[in-house]
Specification:
This protein is of the alpha/beta class. Helix content is about 35%, strand content about 20%. The protein contains 13 helices and 15 strands. Strands 1, 2, 5, 6, 7, 8, 9, 10, 11, 14 and 15 form an eleven-stranded mixed β-sheet that branches. Strands 3-4 form a two-stranded antiparallel sheet. The chain has a two-stranded antiparallel ribbon with strand order 12-13. Helix 2 runs parallel beside helix 6. Pathway: Lipid metabolism; fatty acid biosynthesis.
Length: about 425
């Protein structure tokens, strides 16, 4: 294969991958659980859930976290991102004890003061716990300030792995993980770097986030059987399940990967990005941005829709999202849509990490020539005439995968992944 693409840009290879999901730590555990149709959704144990409408999530229990002092979301993001990056870098055989030869692109959720922070401040108030007293208790607390810096997580990860240049931290809602990969791909295509470490991480299974999504009526309330709660594309779907995790990908120019004798796991052939600025949470009913992102990614890869063998769906399990993705599929592929399935049926919606996790699963789909299932597909929805690979994995010939990430606020990023040359 040529080391330049149809537009004369450097071909981008993936040489390392790492995962943390509710199904386990590491690529092997997560992928095996996914193919087996196992669910990582369970009852929340990290904080009290009495009086909450939703009491389930894809919770990841990290080594060292204590029930009496749960970590905040940025702390969990940093730890899961580090675990995924360590696996990816080791698999790529790059960096390690030496500096990583490229920049860090980190996709993560917004940072805020959370209840563990507030409770700690309340304990340090002099006298009655009031807002002014808590402000006074916070004054001069450098650790609190640094823990609430959005860029702080990326700075610490950059120091840990020795990446080059200023680390880029970004958030584009549910498309964040895919956006991080897109930035790495474009930097390599432009010749600005020979390699990039791209991470998507999410640790927001915490009270504030759960309550906010619940107030939006976005979450499943099927609490009685957590493993059955996430039901993408199924007629009785009624919301997504919050989840957390991380994925890391080591990207390199194909030319550079070959020169150092690296094993190429796959290629990132194209990226497409569109935003519709229609509503804070909803997509425009005309589907223009979703359709545009899918078409842009396929065109960027130099392909026609008929050359896509499988679509790794955004597939959240909300009534509207699955309807809109179906609209996009029909617009892009017509009546000849390829199979489409949603791993969110098993691991839930990992939000900022989803695009990166699903890119890794797409590469594994190509590697093993098997389509992961959409579980909990009991009653087909007649308005969704798609092959959703219901309930059981399927052997298939797969050379190219379209991975969809559609975010709140109409932020949409699609990636086309291809087989290693």
């Amino acid at each position: 294969m040529q080391t330049r693409d149809h537009l004369g840009r450097h071909v981008v290879a993936v040489t390392g991958i790492g995962l943390v999901t509710p199904l386990g730590f590491g690529v092997a555990a997560s992928w095996a659980g996914l193919l087996a149709g196992h669910s990582g959704i369970r009852r929340i144990t990290r904080f009290p859930t009495e009086h909450l409408r939703t009491t389930i999530a894809g919770q990841v229990d990290l080594p060292g976290e204590q029930a009496e002092r749960p970590w905040t979301a940025p702390e969990r993001v940093e730890r899961m991102a580090a675990l995924a990056a360590e696996e990816a870098i080791a698999g790529a055989g790059i960096g390690g004890d030496a500096a990583f030869p490229g920049p860090l692109f980190l996709g993560m959720p917004p940072v805020e003061v959370e209840w563990p922070h507030r409770l700690d401040l309340a304990r340090h108030c002099a006298g009655e716990v009031t807002y002014p007293a808590m402000i006074a208790a916070a004054t001069g607390r450098l650790a609190l300030f640094e823990s609430c810096l959005f860029g702080g997580v990326g700075e610490r990860l950059a120091d840990r792995f020795g990446t080059r240049g200023a680390p880029i931290s970004l958030t584009t809602a549910c498309a964040t993980g895919a956006s991080a990969i897109q930035l790495g791909v474009e930097a390599i295509q432009r010749g600005e770097t020979a390699a990039a470490l791209c991470i998507g991480a999410e640790g927001s299974v915490q009270p504030e986030a759960l309550i906010r999504f619940s107030l939006l009526s976005a979450l499943s309330t099927r609490n009685e059987d957590p493993t059955k709660a996430s039901r993408p594309f199924e007629k009785t779907r009624e919301g997504f399940v919050m989840s957390e995790g991380a994925a890391a990908l080591v990207l390199e120019s194909l030319e550079g990967a070959r020169a150092r004798g690296a094993t190429v796991l796959g290629l990132v052939l194209g990226c497409g990005e569109r935003a519709d600025s229609f509503h804070r949470t909803r997509s425009n009913p005309d589907g223009g941005a979703i359709i545009g992102a899918m078409r842009a990614a396929i065109e960027d890869a130099g392909l026609e829709p008929g050359q896509i063998d499988y679509v790794n769906a955004h597939g959240t399990g909300t009534p509207e999202n699955d309807k809109m993705e179906t609209l996009g599929m029909r617009a892009v592929f017509g009546d000849a849509a390829p199979p489409i399935s949603s791993n969110k049926s098993m691991i839930g919606h990992t939000l900022s990490a989803a695009g990166a996790i699903e890119a890794v699963f797409s590469l594994l789909t190509i590697r093993d020539q098997v389509l992961p299932p959409t579980i909990n597909h009991e009653t087909p929805d007649p308005s969704i005439p798609l092959d959703v690979v219901p309930n059981v994995k399927r052997a298939a010939k797969v050379a190219r995968v379209l991975s969809n990430s559609f975010g709140f606020g109409g932020q949409n990023v699609c990636l086309v992944l291809g087989a290693a040359p």
